[in-house]
């Protein structure tokens, strides 16, 4: 399962990625051509200029102002589009800026169907800004049951939004099934998949029929916990024009230096994701066999309720694991405080291992009653398994569990 993933040739013939039939080669070479620079630089230079000389008024060579476009951003966007096997990518200053750019395509009175288990910041934006300020409607449902979507779609439904796997409960949604139901009801419904947890190395939602893919680049794609950025990727030319307008008109664009850093991080994405998967699968199996653990949520385990769906639409799994301790808030606090290799911190997807308590950290903005219904309880721990040596990771979890639950 950890061998190199070939690109789906039936799809890739449309795009630049057909030049390189394997992921790692594309990550290293697409958009990086030395011939595009003045001195054939192998590593794309950082273009810090905010403005560009025009030979004649209103006739720029390519860009006129860096909010609208920048060579460092061009390189990154071209590479990311290729890795998702898509035509277009637009990057934004954060994952939530990318989220807002997508939802800003809707009009007052439009309806969004959103999966009930998504990142707390996404829920906050939709409920406290899109709904309360901009007049949109939202229905939150469990999309692991496809009949829920059939019931939720209304005449004014314009978008379906979900993560697969979800944050923090690792629920897996059948992407192709959601696309089928949504498009059958109305071909104009835009299906958006947050692919942050998987990256294009393990899952490509556009190849499964999704219209739009969103990433918090902050996480696995950059992989070094030193950049905040988001991306929106699509094959739809009209939607891409909307995204470009959001960059231009709203201005939530990343700096050239941050684009340079992410472009660097992408070069090792395929190597990192293999290591994350190998470590996380072993950690998940260790936790599942541990008497101090109530249950483990990791889609690559056969015990996961959507394991078969996960196998059908992915090529592996990242380092994200959630699990329930046999305890309450006190035991969770003791466990997290006792960790030495895992760092108690929010975020995920870097080379270092992290651990957190969603109920009072990443998902604290989700109403308590909603957390209770979803199962985001005080004994639910989320870990991001890094690429350290596996024996050290398991030893760290073991000693912390023994302190928390003697």
TrEMBL record:
GO cellular component: cytoplasm
Region (Disordered): 48-69
GO biological process, one term: cysteine biosynthetic process via cystathionine
Modified residue annotations for N6-(pyridoxal phosphate)lysine: 219
Molecular function in Gene Ontology: cystathionine gamma-lyase activity; pyridoxal phosphate binding
Pathways involved: Amino-acid biosynthesis; L-cysteine biosynthesis; L-cysteine from L-homocysteine and L-serine: step 2/2
E.C. number: 4.4.1.1
Enzyme class: lyase
Keywords from the UniProt entry: Amino-acid biosynthesis, Cysteine biosynthesis, Pyridoxal phosphate
Co-factor(s): pyridoxal 5'-phosphate
PANTHER family reported in the protein's UniProt record: CYSTATHIONINE GAMMA-LYASE, TRANS-SULFURATION ENZYME FAMILY MEMBER
Family: Belongs to the trans-sulfuration enzymes family.
Protein name as catalogued: cystathionine gamma-lyase
Lineage per the UniProt record: Eukaryota, Metazoa, Ecdysozoa, Nematoda, Chromadorea
């Amino acid at each position: 399962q950890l061998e190199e993933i070939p690109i789906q040739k039936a799809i890739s013939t449309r795009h630049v990625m057909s030049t390189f039939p394997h992921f790692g080669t594309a990550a290293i070479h697409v958009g990086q051509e030395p011939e595009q620079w003045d001195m054939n630089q192998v590593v794309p230079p950082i273009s810090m200029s905010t403005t560009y000389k025009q030979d004649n008024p209103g006739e720029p060579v390519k860009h006129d102002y860096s909010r609208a476009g920048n060579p460092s951003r061009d390189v990154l966007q071209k590479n990311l589009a290729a890795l998702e096997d898509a035509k277009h990518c637009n990057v934004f200053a954060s994952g939530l800026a990318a989220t807002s750019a997508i939802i800003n395509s809707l009009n007052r009175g439009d309806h969004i169907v959103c999966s009930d288990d998504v990142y707390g910041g996404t829920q906050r934006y939709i409920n406290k800004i899109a709904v309360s300020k901009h007049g949109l409607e939202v229905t939150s449902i469990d999309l692991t049951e496809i009949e829920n979507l059939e019931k939720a779609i209304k005449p004014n439904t314009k978008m379906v939004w979900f993560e697969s796997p979800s944050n923090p409960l690792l629920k897996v949604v059948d992407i192709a099934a959601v696309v089928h139901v949504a498009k059958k009801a109305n071909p104009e419904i835009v299906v958006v998949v947050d692919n942050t947890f998987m990256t294009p190395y393990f899952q490509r939602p556009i190849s499964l029929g999704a219209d739009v893919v969103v990433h918090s680049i902050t996480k696995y794609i950059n992989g070094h916990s030193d950049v905040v950025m988001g991306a929106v990727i699509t094959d739809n030319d009209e939607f891409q024009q909307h995204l470009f307008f959001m960059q231009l008109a709203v201005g939530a664009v990343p700096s050239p230096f941050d684009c340079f850093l992410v472009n660097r991080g992408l070069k090792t994405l395929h190597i990192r994701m293999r290591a994350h998967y190998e470590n996380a699968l072993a950690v998940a199996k260790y936790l599942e066999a541990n008497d101090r653990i109530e249950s483990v949520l990791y889609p690559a385990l056969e015990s996961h309720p959507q394991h078969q769906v996960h196998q059908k639409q992915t090529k592996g799994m990242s380092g994200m694991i959630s699990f329930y301790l046999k305890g309450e808030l006190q035991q969770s606090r003791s466990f997290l405080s006792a960790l030495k290799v895992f760092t108690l911190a929010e975020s995920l997807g870097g080379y270092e291992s992290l651990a957190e308590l969603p109920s009072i950290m990443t998902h604290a903005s989700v109403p308590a009653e909603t957390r209770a219904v979803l199962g985001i309880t005080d004994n639910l721990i989320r870990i991001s398994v890094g690429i350290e040596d596996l024996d050290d990771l398991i030893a760290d979890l073991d000693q912390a569990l023994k302190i928390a639950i003697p």
